[in-house]
Automatic annotation (TrEMBL):
The keyword Membrane applies. It comes from Branchiibius hedensis. InterPro entries: Memb_transporter_dom. It is found in: Membrane. This is Fusaric acid resistance protein-like. The keyword Transcription does not apply. Keywords: Membrane, Transmembrane, Transmembrane helix.
Length: 310
C-alpha cells in the first residue's frame, strides 16, 4: 500500500511540490475501481490525464471558462452515470472532483506555475502528475494485490444519479469560479462527490458520516498544524493517513473512518503552516454547506418526482 503512494513522494521532491494535492486526487479514481477489469482501469487512467489537461485549458479561455467548465462537469457526470452498471461510478465522480480542483485552483498553485511555461507544457504537466501517479498506483497494487482485490458490484439505482451529480456539481463549480476562485470553497464540490450515490440509502448514510469524518479529521489536522508546524512531518503523516484510509475503504470498513483519515490527509498535504488553520476551517464549513445542499436536492427530487422512489 505504501509503495503504491511512492508517486506522491516523487511529486513532493520535484520542482512542483505544490501539486501534491493534484497527485492525491489523481490516485483516488483508480483506488475506487482497483478490482475492475484491466481495460476499464487503463481507460480510466487515460480519462484522468485528459480531464486534468482539459480542466487547466479552460482556465486559459477567459470569459468562456465558466461555460466550458460546466460542460466538462456535465460530461464527467454522464461518464459516472454510465459506470453505475459496472459498480465503479465513484471513479467517474472522483475524476469530476479532480476537474473541479484544477479549475478552481485552491491556493493558486497551478496559476503560479502557469506564469513560468507556455500553455501546452502546463497542460502536459498537469496531465502527467495525476495520470502518472494513478498509473503507478494501479500497476503496483494490481501486481502485489493479485487475487485479493475487491470485485466491483453493479448497483441498481433509485436516484437520477447522472443528472443530480451534473446539476449540483455545475452549480457549485459556477459559484466557486464566479465568487471564490483560488479558494478552498471548492470543497463543496468534493463533499457532493463523496456523499452522492445512485441509491437513497447509501447517500443518506454518507451524509451523516461525512460530517462526522470531516469534523474529526479537520480538528485533528488543525491540532497537528498548530503543535507541529513542520511541513515535511505533515507530508509523512498525510501519506500514512491516506494509505490507511484506502486500506479501510478497500476492505469495506466504515465510511466515517475513511472520511476522517482522508480529510486529515488532504489538509496535511495541501496547506502550509501559514494557511493551515484558515484552510481547515474553510473546508469544514464547506462540507457542512455541501451536505446541506445535497440533502435539499434529495428532498426536492422526492417531492417533484415521487415515481423515482421505487
Amino acid at each position: 500500500m505504501v509503495l503504491a503512494y511512492a508517486g506522491l513522494a516523487a511529486v513532493a521532491l520535484s520542482p512542483w511540490p505544490q501539486l501534491i494535492g493534484l497527485a492525491v486526487l489523481g490516485i483516488n479514481p483508480v483506488w475506487s475501481a482497483i478490482g475492475a477489469d484491466a481495460r476499464q482501469l487503463w481507460s480510466l487512467i487515460g480519462v484522468i490525464a485528459m480531464t486534468a489537461a482539459l480542466a487547466v485549458a479552460t482556465s486559459a479561455t477567459g470569459r468562456w471558462q465558466l461555460l466550458l467548465g460546466v460542460l466538462l462537469t456535465c460530461a464527467l457526470a454522464a461518464y459516472s452515470a454510465r459506470l453505475v452498471r459496472l459498480g465503479i461510478h465513484q471513479a467517474g465522480a472522483f475524476t469530476l472532483m479532480l476537474a473541479a480542483y484544477v479549475m478552481v485552483d485552491p491556493g493558486r498553485a497551478i496559476d503560479g506555475i502557469a506564469a513560468t511555461m507556455p500553455l501546452w507544457r502546463l497542460m502536459l504537466l498537469i496531465a502527467l502528475v495525476p495520470g502518472g501517479c494513478a498509473l503507478w498506483a494501479t500497476v503496483v497494487t494490481r501486481l502485489l494485490g493479485r487475487g485479493n482485490l475487491p470485485t466491483p458490484r453493479p448497483v441498481v439505482a433509485d436516484l437520477p444519479y447522472g443528472p443530480l451529480l451534473g446539476g449540483l456539481a455545475s452549480v457549485f463549480l459556477a459559484i466557486c469560479l464566479i465568487w471564490f476562485p483560488g479558494t478552498e470553497v471548492w470543497w463543496v464540490v468534493l463533499t457532493l462527490v463523496c456523499i452522492l450515490r445512485p441509491t437513497r440509502a447509501e447517500t443518506a448514510t454518507r451524509e451523516r458520516y461525512r460530517v462526522y469524518g470531516t469534523l474529526l479529521g479537520g480538528i485533528g489536522a488543525g491540532l497537528i498544524g498548530w503543535l507541529v508546524p513542520h511541513q515535511p512531518v505533515w507530508i509523512v503523516l498525510g501519506a500514512i493517513a491516506i494509505a490507511v484510509g484506502t486500506a479501510i475503504n478497500l476492505n469495506g470498513g466504515p465510511y466515517w473512518k475513511w472520511s476522517t483519515l482522508v480529510t486529515f490527509a488532504v489538509v496535511m498535504l495541501t496547506f502550509t503552516p501559514q494557511t493551515v488553520l484558515d484552510g481547515d476551517l474553510t473546508r469544514v464549513a464547506a462540507t457542512l454547506v455541501g451536505v446541506s445542499l445535497t440533502v435539499g436536492a434529495m428532498v426536492f427530487v422526492d417531492r417533484c418526482w415521487p415515481s423515482l422512489r421505487h
